[in-house]
Amino acid sequence: MATDEKLECATCGDTSALTGGKKRIIFPCAGVANVGQISNAAALRLTDEGYGAATCIALLGAGDAGLKKRIAEADEVVIIDGCSVICGVKIASAQGVNPGQHIIITELGFEKAYTRNFTEDDVETVVSAAWEGMGR
């Protein structure tokens, strides 16, 4: 479903008002399995809730200079990986980025399945883990 809703992202300008003065950049793995889909949905919800600004892990992997500048200015980088393969943190590490918080969804009790099915409660579990700092 397409919407006209504008999303704030870490590459689109000043996000400090969005995050209550603390600049956080959130990278979901956004893989195709259920846990990747949950990571993306959680990053978007965290953005909506003012926790930080979601952006694309592929842009980081491409070594985008503007994104690297924003990361250097951020208070915290949050990576939400779906599973133990930890693609997100590997991409970040290859670019010299160390997350302040790294959440691995399968470590929250989820089983990886090659389906796009998940519930709002699944997303809420990951969102709560970020707010509680469980990945620090």
Description:
With 136 residues, this protein is of the alpha/beta class. The chain has a single domain, classed as Rossmann fold (3-Layer(aba) Sandwich). Helices cover 36% and strands 12% of the residues. The chain contains 5 helices and 4 strands. A 4-stranded parallel beta sheet has the order 2-1-3-4, with helices on both faces. Helix 1 links the parallel strand 1 (24-28) and strand 2 (53-54). The chain is globular and about 35 Å long.
Map the helices and strands.
Layout: E1 24-28, H1 34-48, E2 53-54, H2 57-61, H3 65-73, E3 76-81, H4 87-94, E4 101-104, H5 120-131
Parallel strand pairs: 1-2, 1-3, 3-4
Would you report the number of β strands? Answer: 4
Structural class: alpha/beta
Report strand order across the widest sheet.
Answer: 2-1-3-4
Helical content stands at 25-40%
Rg, alpha carbons? 14 Å
Tell me what portion of residues adopts beta-strand conformation.
5-15%
Spatial separation of the terminal alpha carbons? 34 Å
The CATH architecture can be named as 3-Layer(aba) Sandwich
Key attributes of the depicted protein:
136 residues; alpha/beta; Rossmann fold; 4-stranded parallel β-sheet; 5 helices; 36% helix; 12% strand; disordered N terminus
Provide a compact summary of the structure.
The chain has helices at 34-48, 57-61, 65-73, 87-94, 120-131, and strands at residues 24-28, 53-54, 76-81, 101-104. With 136 residues, the protein is of the alpha/beta class.
